[in-house]
Each structure stands twice: as C-alpha cells, then as structure tokens.
Write a structure and sequence with these properties.
CATH architecture: Alpha-Beta Barrel
CATH topology: TIM Barrel
Bound molecules: zinc ion
CATH class: Alpha Beta
Strand order of the largest sheet: 1-2-3
Distance between the termini: 53 Å
Number of helices: 6
Helix content: 40-55%
Radius of gyration: 16 Å
Shape: globular
Number of domains: 1
Length: about 150
C-alpha cells in the first residue's frame, strides 16, 4: 500500500500550474501588507481555506482569488519570491518536472515593463531550479493584446 510519505517521495510531473495560484498563504499575507491589498483574513490557515475556493458559486467568485494574488505580484521582488517558492514547494512534494503558466501582462498594471516581469519570474524559477528540488519548465500565456500573425 502507498503511504502518504511514499507518495510524496515518488517523482512526479506537474504539467499545468499557475504562478498566480501558487502563493504560500503566509507569503500572500506578507506581500498583501506591503502592497496594501486587503485580504479576508491575516491568518494563514484562513487564507489557505479561502484560496482553496471550496463552495464558490461560479467562475467569477473563483477568480476573485486571482485578483488578490495578481494585485500583490506587481514588483520584481514579489514575482521572484513567488516563482522561487513555488519551485521549492513543488520539489518538496516530489515534483521533478514543473510546467509553470503565467500571464506577464497581468503583472504590468503596477508599472512594471513586460521585460521586468519576465526577468523576475525567470530569476525565481532559476533559483528554485538551482536548489535541485525541481526542474521548472517555463511556459507563459500570450498577451491578450498580442495579435496572431496571419498565415
Ligand atoms: Zn490553467
């Protein structure tokens, strides 16, 4: 029988994980304080429960959680930290291949340039990768404003 400990130790691939849905509750609370973003609670257990979004009525209510995480992901420091921590946390869960998704344009609303967003996320992912807990494979969304070239 598979024990929880063995399940954690088994190597895994996470093929679709969103950066803005992967903040540690304590990190979200800390970043929200410095970004002056109001969370429903300052207790990590309560924030974790809220972010799980069990029992939401519809997609709009679910996406309210992402409005909060996007609001705190507006500085290079926050982006790098969250990217790093998600790789470390995935590695601790036995993930050896991590495909990260994010929409860089959503982190440009606070004044960052797209290149700054990409560089900060890249630094965080590489730092996590260097810790050898997981091997991130980066992906990103296309900007909603980007035109698809005609064929
Ligand atoms: Zn997705």
């Amino acid at each position: 029988m598979l024990s929880p400990e063995l399940l954690v130790r088994l190597p895994k691939a996470e093929l679709h994980v969103h950066l803005d849905g992967s903040l540690r509750p304590a990190t979200l609370i800390e970043l929200a304080q410095s970004a002056k973003v109001n969370l429903p609670s300052k207790d990590p257990v309560e924030v974790a429960r809220f972010m799980k979004a069990d029992g939401v009525r519809d997609l709009a209510e679910y996406l309210e959680r992402f409005a909060l995480t996007i609001a705190v992901l507006q500085t290079p420091e926050a982006l790098e930290r969250v990217a790093y921590e998600m790789v470390v946390d995935a590695g601790a869960d036995g993930v050896r291949h991590l495909e990260v998704r994010y929409c860089p344009v959503l982190s440009c609303t606070g004044g960052l340039a797209m290149s700054e967003v990409l560089a900060a996320i890249g630094r965080g992912l590489r730092r996590g990768e260097a810790s050898r807990v997981a091997l991130p494979h980066r992906q990103r969304y296309r900007s909603p404003r980007r035109r698809v070239p005609a064929r």
